[in-house]
Design goal:
350 residues, globular
Amino acid sequence: MSGLMSRILDSMLIHLIQEFDMSPRIDWLSRLLDMVPVRGHLDLRCFYGAPWRIEEDRAKPGEIPYHIVLGGSAVLEDATGGPRKRLAPGDIVLLFHGGAHVLHDGSGAPPAPAHQRAGLNLTISENAGTGDRLDMLCGRFVFTAPHERLLRDYLPARLVVQAADHSAPTAQPGTSAQLAGLVSLMRIESALDSLGGRAMLNALSTAMFALTLRLASEAAEAPAGLLALAGHPRLAPALAALFHEPDHSWTLPELARLCHMSRATMARHFQEKLGRSASDLLTDIRMMLAAQELRKASVSTGAVAVAVGYQSEAAFQRAFKKRMGITPAAWRRAAHTSAGGKIAAIAADT
């Protein structure tokens, strides 16, 4: 009886908080980044003359590599089996799959030896090549390892966007120009050994993650996954509802009414754009939110279950273990003792 009473009180408290919550309604991407915090790290600036070649091993768990071509060009080959991609100045590539990949000048000639030197805020890599010049920034985005599957399930394996030259006379204001401005700041800051420079570069990298996803969602042909849903005007209301109210037991008819389409059309669009159902997305959103709430020692597992839409704590625990590969209790313990590496190790062993 005491357990039932505790769950009732938890539910009442959560509903009271929600009723008096005057915070603004935020968009789906901001909500996602609240649930899955991503931190950017700029590690390397490359100054190469052709011929050159960079071979990157598979990323560590919880890391997404990125590259920004500031000047020159590069050819990208990655382990996903996708076509070779020539990158031009302003191109930004995010490798959500985290697999091994190669960047080179495209000549096929043996690369000139490169050497590295440590700057105050990042590492500089240079070679003795005398051919076409490359100027490129390399870094990574870091997030808690168990969120790795969720992000990679819902975002494209490889994402390339173009940051327009915001100084060009024909440039239009918008996300592309904003991204170009941010990259310009990264170019300037990475060339200096200024006080606070590393913190600045990492903060700019983190902002770049959100801007890159925003720009990709605005493309005429948005990539598959969440970006495709966000870029579809008729499906966007359902995406916003799922992220804003994950505790609601959303049904297909409710979501279809929000989008002014039939249930069959709604289900087909979700499957085509996302590769899974609205119910699958709702469950994963709930698990991402629950993972964040479980870090709070003052919030019971029962309260977390209610907050993400489960009336039964046992049902929540089963869903969490299935999606995250780790029990809520183990997640909470690991989160309070160390960072994502320990959580990843526990998840791999369960």
